[in-house]
TrEMBL record:
Residue ranges of domain NADP-dependent oxidoreductase in the record: 22-291
Organism: Novosphingobium sediminicola
Molecular function per GO: oxidoreductase activity
GO CC list: cytosol
Name of the featured protein: Putative oxidoreductase
Amino acid sequence: MSLLPLPSAERPLGGSGLNISPIAWGMWRLAEDGRTATDAARLVHAALDAGIKLLDTADIYGFNGKDGFGDAEALLGEVIAADPGLRNRFVLATKGGIMPPLPYDQSSEYLSAAIDASLRRLKVEVIDLYQVHRPDILAHPAQVARVLDDAVASGKIRSIGVSNFTQAQVAALNHFLTNKLVVTQPEISPLRITALENGEMDQAMMLGLTPLAWSPLGGGRLAAPETARDLAVAEALDVVAKDRGVSRTVAAYSWLMAHPAGIIPIIGSQNPARIAEGAAALSVQWSREEWYGVLVAARGEKLP
């Protein structure tokens, strides 16, 4: 059986000049459950010990609808301040441009202030990857590009990415940027294959963007299938999981990583053991038949 190639242990982050691992860790829920800086440090070390080199957060992480805006960044900032040597061990990514309750604001004044606020909370002098979290339809891409380019020029950020942007929005912002985009971050999972079929991954390969996949486990639905389609996808993943001796979770990560765009799943778990488990995905190879079996289950119909 011919197998698809394994991801390399290290890969470039777009054209940023930075290198990352083929899997990342995200901090959407870092500030929940009363976690202390000691708790957060334990999770950061679990990610680093698993070989993860990209840590992804956002200024909105920790917001509960009333308060908590910036809490995840601030908690990570405490971890970095307590152990400055950690900063050189990972690529630091954050996101901004959401301002509750608007919800989105990428005006020059707000976006520039949001970058400065993230730097203060994270207690760092430079952010490796700054991503516009969701597109502000009322902001001209030339205006957004100017703020981001200025932040690169002033040494506040090293590289630029976007999250939840359409192909046209990616192209428009990239057109006006001097420092071109290096990342796109859509929702991708075996249950959410839109980005695989609508041209987003093709655009990423064409522009040299690294795709970061948020919610790669379908918001937990792969662990507890809710519909007939969910169950069919889980069963297709289990074929490989059982044969390779890994969990369905690891099979799901590796399925995304087998795509030629070099998709990097962002592990969302705040459990050290589950973060460590994700590293096993680097050694799982798929055949074309197995890979397309999951895609067919996700589509709910045979390929033409």
